[in-house]
Amino acid sequence: MKKLATYGVKPHDSALKEDGSSWSLMEKLFLGLPLDQYIGQAIRNKFNWVLAVIFAIGFPVIIYRFIFSLGAVTHASYDYPWGLFLGFGLFCMVPLSASGFMLGTTVEIFGRHDFEPIERLALLNGLLGYFFAVVYLLVDLGQPWRLSYPMIYSWGPAAVLFLVGWHVATYLSVQVMEVSTAFFEWIGFQRGYEFIRKGTVGLTVSGIILSTLHQGALGALFVYAPGKVHPLWYSAPFQWLHYFISSIPAGLCMVICVSTIVIYTMKWRCDQRFIDNLDRITISLAKGAALGLITYLIMKIIAVAHDNEWAYIVTGWGVWWLFEIIVGVIVPMALLAYGAHNKLAGICRIGAFITVFGILLNRLNTALIVFNWKLYQEIPHKWEIIISITIFALYIATYRFILARLPILYKYKD
Amino acid sequence: MSSKISRRRFLAGSAAGAALVMHPGKKAFASGSFSGFPDGMGVLVDLTRCVGCRTCEAACNKEQKLPEPALPFDDYSVFDEIHHGNQKRRTTDKAYTIVNRYEPEGSDQPLYRKIQCNHCNEPACLTSCFVGAYTKTPEGAVIYDQHVCVGCRNCMIACPFHIPAYTYHSVLNPVIKKCIFCYDTRLKEGRPPACVESCPQQVMTFGKRKDLMKIARERIRKNPKKYIDHVYGEHEVGGTGWFYISSAPFAEAGFDEDLPKEPIINNVKDFLAMVPVVLVVWPALFTGFHLLATKGKSHGHGDDHSNDKQEGH
Amino acid sequence: MVNAGKQLITGLGILLLFSVLSVSCYAMDYPDEVEIDSLTNLYEAVVFDHAMHVDATENCSECHHHTTGTGVTNEYCAKCHEGDVEMDVVACQDCHSDDPVSPDNLHTAKPDFFYHDDKPKLKAAYHLKCLGCHSEVDGPTGCEDCHAKTEAGDKFYHSGEFAPKEDAQHGAEHE
């Protein structure tokens, strides 16, 4: 797109063309570019080649999973029933998608409209993260066609997973509605847009309720296995709180990371309002993330004290725990705080990337690495790794597809 | 200020939503603890009697119509099998019960342990299942309904004894496989399970759990030098239907001695209690924040004119 | 002519010997060999060398509890049965029932039989008694050391001609 910009070609950024006629849907899909220019820029983009390779290998493997069963693409482990599909796809993607309710609350509940430029990106981040978490779930479930059973057919209401299922389904609907304003704007359905806007406060509060509970519930799932998760990562009373609190910096930092990637790779799509405000917003988000991280750190230490687990810290697993806490929590917290205090957006961004790494580490630790710490370690099957990468690549491709078209990074000029 | 219509809609919507999500949740008699149905059956497993003949494994295979085993049931090389570097055998989708051999310290005799579902009083598998696929029957068996199972495998995570196995290699109908106390074929009629009946040494005694607990205590009392003074499963994870007495310390026979004495569900009860709190308090809390933060100020996106005619805009 | 005194002493001696013997179980009427066949199904009948075991044990009560009138070896039996006389029935199957283990067996109505609660069934009584001693004195402990499998037994254990074929052994789950 940079090359096209040198020729003065710009993608469409308003409902009407310069001559006053409106763009058709097909034209909007191709970014308002003629077909040959669109294809040209797609081929020139080297990232598309990487995606092509990943999809060429990954999609057949996904089809293979559905034809030849889960046992063909995983270790079919009885001791490790949950692998990367849930360990990464669900437990990691969900906290990183907490941005939806965070920014929605900031703008709509607390009235901080100075965050508006990033609000839609955060909502989209939330929606896509949850949507693809469900995709991972469908690949992981033994009988995915029965996904609706806990909703409509057979209830097990005492189960934490019941809560997770209902909430993810409901929250996905809430997020679809919140992002639909951008979609309606894009396709020009003004009445739909206004209809959703009226219910925004209600939707946002529903989002906070649902997010609090299911972010916490994902942590509570591990409380079913007291002997299996290492004591330093396990806390019967506080596990849910650890997961909920850590989802706040996770969501905020994911927004910082995505906006950083966007500003470097898709600047052509960002309007001036976005570009001018991004650094300021990044610093404010970093402040929030730093606060979230210090709260999380204190709760983790309280949990160790509560169960008197200090002796575990000087073991091998304890060193790993210290690594996670120092590299995954303390270092990014320091960077974010320093960057926010001295108004250095770049430092904040580095801190945000490390925070995301820390969240991934914590979730993968609890679900896979320190799970069954008394038994043996299991490395996921190669097909499982490939499928996980493929779905994540699909997530990135979908993300990019939507960001390039819908008025998320730019406002329609009307 | 929100329009009257949207605030009312929001309050009604969140109250309805709260009611909807809360309704299926809470039993009327929530927080008691359950020590098993009063006439629930159980099995006392006396490890001092087991000689590792594996007849129980063969009997289960026949009764439950399991596939042919990899090795004959009187092949004792299975006791030397090591999986994943340090693990002895465990239950699989083709073997609902297995016997392992252990070498306790200070004893020249090996100790054999039969492993199968312990049919807990308050099973973790049951409490973790979001479609209610597990049932604790009044007879004491913990059984599984494959027709509602979605395959989330949360039960495998939750079971503290690592019992449920899954038929991962089935494409269209993968299901959980585990000992069901021979419920369909025997327990419903009050008969003991196949393994109990087949055992030549009567390692297992079948009866009402409460009676068997007394017998276990009696055996220990009459032979204090023969038994460790502990019945494994009396209180572990809230009490199990199948419980053990042994001549060697249980940890040396592969038992996990760090399990809580309370049922697994107690761990999640506190979190589940948060659900109604959040559903009730959050709407008021955040509406309050919203009103405090935005009263009198202009709010709503610059191009959102849907509330223009309302007061305050 | 025979020495009357010697005859008397010999006769008294023989009488003494018999009377001594008569109060020991060695004077009892016992079968030299017992074919234990009431439970044959998976295994053939056991041909039990009773005479050898009589020589090998010190006291009949080691196997027959308190039923042979030869004193008791178990302190619990002794509480009631010290000094008991020989009973009409001493065979294992006379007291240890053949019934499949039924929960009702755990409750015996008569309070004076309290100590006979938790009585093993017949198959278990045989194995617990025999194997219990054999494992302490290095006797035979393998299943087929005492009874060969029948064809039904081979089928049950998937052994012998019913053993899994070679390739079945390699098809196990790769978990």
How are the elements arranged and paired?
The complex is a heterotrimer of chains A (414), B (313) and C (175).
Chain A: H1 2-6, H2 25-29, H3 35-44, H4 46-68, H5 84-87, H6 93-96, H7 99-109, H8 116-140, H9 149-153, H10 160-187, H11 190-198, H12 200-220, H13 239-265, H14 272-306, H15 316-341, H16 345-369, H17 382-405
Helix pairs in contact in A: 4-17, 7-8, 7-12, 7-13, 8-10, 8-13, 8-17, 10-11, 10-12, 12-13, 13-14, 13-16, 14-15, 14-16, 15-16
Chain B: H1 4-22, E1 41-46, H2 55-63, E2 98-102, E3 111-115, H3 124-128, E4 134-136, E5 142-144, H4 154-158, E6 165-166, E7 176-177, H5 194-198, E8 204-208, H6 209-222, E9 242-245, H7 265-294
Parallel strand pairs in B: 1-9
Antiparallel strand pairs in B: 1-8, 2-3, 4-5, 6-7
Chain C: H1 4-22, E1 33-36, E2 46-49, H2 50-56, H3 61-64, H4 75-81, H5 92-95, H6 122-137, H7 143-146, H8 151-157, H9 166-169
Antiparallel strand pairs in C: 1-2
Key phrases:
heterotrimer, B: 313 residues, alpha+beta, 3-stranded mixed sheet, two-stranded antiparallel sheet, 9 strands, 11% strand, disordered C terminus, C: 175 residues, mainly alpha, 9 helices, 2 strands
The total count of strands of chain C amounts to 2
Shape of chain B: globular
Q: Greatest contact pair?
A: A-B, 77 and 82 residues
Pick out the low-confidence regions of chain B.
Answer: 1-5, 23-31, 302-313
* Tally of alpha and pi helices of chain C: 9
Task: Give, in order, the helices and strands of chain B.
Answer: HEHEEHEEHEEHEHEH
**Content-based structural category of chain B:** alpha+beta
The largest beta-sheet of chain B arranges its strands as 8-1-9
Strand order of the largest sheet of chain C: 1-2
Question: How much strand of chain B?
Answer: 5-15%
Shape of chain C: elongated
The whole-angstrom Rg of chain C is 23 Å
Work out the helicity level of chain B: 25-40%
Helix-and-strand structural type of chain C? mainly alpha
Percentage of residues assigned to helices of chain C: 40-55%
Could you give a short description of this structure?
The complex is a heterotrimer of chains A (414), B (313) and C (175). Chain B is 28% helix and 11% strand.
Describe the model.
The complex is a heterotrimer of chains A (414), B (313) and C (175). Chain A contains 17 helices and no strands. By secondary structure, chain A is mostly helical. Chain A is globular. Chain B contains 7 helices and 9 strands; from the N terminus they run H-E-H-E-E-H-E-E-H-E-E-H-E-H-E-H. Chain C is mainly α. Chain C has helices at residues 4-22, 50-56, 61-64, 75-81, 92-95, 122-137, 143-146, 151-157, 166-169; strands at residues 33-36, 46-49. Chains A and B meet through helix 4, helix 7, helix 9, helix 10 and helix 11 of A and helix 1, helix 3, helix 4, strand 6 and helix 7 of B.
